[in-house]
Design brief:
alpha/beta, TIM Barrel, Immunoglobulin-like, six-stranded antiparallel β-sheet, 9 helices, 28% strand
Length: 462
């Protein structure tokens, strides 16, 4: 509480308003409010190892995101790490060398860990880890970047479990004598006790930061992580923050693909999906009146167009968050210039991040908290070889994204009036065509300029 009082006094002294952490927008909780600004989170980020890998220069990485106009990153902070070659990822910063792995716990004097170093003592915190974690949050905050703090992740196969501090071979506490597929279960009382302590420690250490939210577990569907266990961790986050100055949003990673959220936990504010049919996921869960996120994609080849299309469709369908796994970030190439091999499972590049910046600038040009999904206004699209998505503040603003090729006519059911119309090249950011139209009745018919793959349309009433 003394720290809170000091922060408020400091803010007052320099005439700065301390608004509190990122939260749901009060006027439209499908979106965020961050530092008093309506916010949608859009990024193409590193593979989550920025803090646990001592070889990764996260300041250079955050500088790159900021210079690319992006405002989000996802971070693993738990006892999960990968090993070189996992998932066929080259330059994987989530797979540090043993001596470069920075865990939340201290190494003991007892040899015998699977990685060839000493075992961990799960009763002793590693100050180096927490100092690095807090500095990462601080540096991201200076650049206006919001961090998803992901606490846990299932162990996809045995070799990944073998290097975890929670594996009994790797700690002196006798914790973790279970199968790799059974780590996140309430029946494992010894592991749960340390998972609880870790959660409470992280939440306590990071309470001061306004640019974070928590996600309980990455891809819990991999080994049917217990829903009861996930809700237990949610409750620990909420319970811990009851005695602290600030309250942070909590996310659940719902599904790989499409799923309807039936019974949302009262402590959860964000519902994130992976490798989804983006617009469908938003449509079936929009009734939750909460942000819907697409916080991991990147296993669908290396073409920029694949992920650009995913991002535009998701955001124009009403999504609040998009994150692509960007394999051009790696230790030594934190500026996003790593040249990955053709077998890499996904893509990412400076050119793609520029395309995401175009999307972010486009959506930020609208008063988007007053807009809602409005695909019903699109009554026809002649020669459209694909789909179209629309956000609308009826009679005032319309944001449209269309997939197709060459030429296209759009037939839109909007109120009569005078409108300014701009067609945007999603790859270059160039305005390809501008016109003013006086719409009187029936359908507004607009002819697109020639384009390839996709195009965006801004319609604003004059």
């Amino acid at each position: 509480m003394k720290k809170y009082v000091f922060l408020v006094m400091l803010a007052s002294a320099v005439n700065v308003t301390f608004a509190g952490p990122i939260c749901l927008h009060p006027g439209n909780p499908h979106y965020f409010l961050f530092r008093d600004r309506p916010t949608i989170l859009i990024t193409s980020g590193e593979h989550y190892g920025a803090v646990i890998n001592a070889d990764f220069d996260y300041v250079k990485y955050l500088d790159t995101l900021a210079s690319d106009g992006l405002n989000h990153t996802r971070l693993f902070v738990g006892p999960y790490r990968e090993i070189p070659g996992a998932f066929n990822i080259q330059g994987n910063d989530l797979a540090p060398m043993p001596e470069k792995y920075i865990a939340a716990w201290q190494r003991s004097d007892t040899p015998g860990a699977f990685d060839g170093l000493n075992k961990f003592d799960l009763t002793k915190w590693n100050d180096k880890f927490f100092d690095r974690l807090k500095d990462f949050c601080r540096q991201a905050g200076k650049r206006g970047i919001v961090i998803e703090i992901n606490l846990f992740c299932p162990y996809y196969w045995e070799d990944l479990w073998k290097v975890s501090p929670f594996n009994a071979q790797n700690n002196i506490n006798g914790v973790g004598k279970v199968k790799f597929s059974e780590v996140y279960r309430m029946a494992n009382s010894d592991i749960v006790a340390h998972q609880t302590a870790f959660t409470q420690k992280i939440v306590g250490e990071l309470n001061e930061f306004d640019n974070i939210y928590y996600e309980v577990c990455n891809e819990p569907w991999v080994h049917d992580v217990e829903q009861a266990w996930q809700e237990y961790i949610v409750d620990r986050i909420v319970e811990t923050e009851k005695r602290l100055p600030f309250k942070h949003l909590v996310s659940l990673n719902v599904a790989n693909g499409m799923r309807v959220v039936e019974k949302p936990h009262r402590g959860v504010s964000i519902f994130n999906f992976h490798y989804a049919g983006p617009p469908t996921v938003v449509a079936v869960n929009y009734r939750l009146n909460k942000p819907i996120g697409f916080n991991e994609t990147g296993f669908a080849g290396q073409n920029d167009s694949t992920y650009r299309i995913q991002a535009w469709e998701f955001i124009l369908a009403g999504g609040a968050l998009f994150n692509n796994l960007d394999y051009s970030f790696s230790p030594g190439c934190e500026d996003g210039t790593f040249r990955y091999h053709r077998q890499q499972p996904g893509g990412g590049s400076a050119s793609f991040r520029k395309q995401l910046k175009i999307l972010k600038q486009f959506i930020d040009s609208f008063d988007f908290t007053k807009m809602r999904p409005a695909n019903g206004i699109i009554k026809g699209a002649h020669t459209l070889n694909g789909t179209a998505w629309c956000l609308a503040n009826p009679g005032k603003e319309y944001a449209v994204y269309a997939r197709g090729n060459l030429e296209m006519f759009l037939y839109l059911d909007i109120p009569a009036g005078k409108y300014n119309v701009e067609w945007l090249n999603t790859k270059t950011g160039k305005i390809e065509k501008t016109e003013q139209v006086s719409h009187k009745k029936d359908l507004l018919i607009l002819k697109a300029p020639r384009f390839e793959e996709d195009i965006a349309l801004r319609i604003v009433r004059i």
